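Fold it.
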Amino acid sequence: MNREDRSVADAVGKVIAEIACAVDRIVDAFAKGGRLIYLGAGTSGRLGVLDAAECPATFSVPADMVLGLIAGGADAFYKATESAEDDAEAGVEALKDIGLIRRDVVVGITVSGRTPYVVGGLTYAKALGATTVALSCNQDAVIARMADISILPVVGPEVVAGSTRVKSGTAQKLVLNMLTTASMIRSGKCYQNLMVDLKPTNMKLVGRAARIVRAARQSRLKRCSD
């Protein structure tokens, strides 16, 4: 498994240009008051919810600036509800429920690239005029043909055939990390490589915030002296 996992970063490296294009659109959306919305099912949906949930504490952004929608609703994050992904209309309704607008960016996440929940949601988002991004590990993904931007890290066969939560899931997590982190950096949420906008909501983070401020000050003093 470890040997196979080493190939995942290389697969993601081959789609850096597409990731960069998506980041451009996300940054533009943020600047205009738009949101980043992840739409997925199963493991893909959980990864989207996880990445979205970490943004407010990490970058002090509003809770609704990055949203994760998963087929089957919040309960599906903890308990598999596999049949929910077959409902294309549910993907549409999920986006309607959050009041999707043209300024938003919708990232459809599905390893196969043909999950009905995601296909339905992206179809609605595109018709509305929102930016659509396809994230799939299938070169022939259906969503790749309908989205404005397609990110397709092809990782090859899984160690356990029939499971997509390992190499494919890892690739998706790497891409999602890049989408939010790079977008937040370009939106002014970092000073150099320092996370200066975190929320110090517990003892660990209070200490971390103090160290970051100290490091930023030392870096600035060094630059001034140079």
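The beta strands are 36-40, 66-70, 105-109, 131-135, 149-151.
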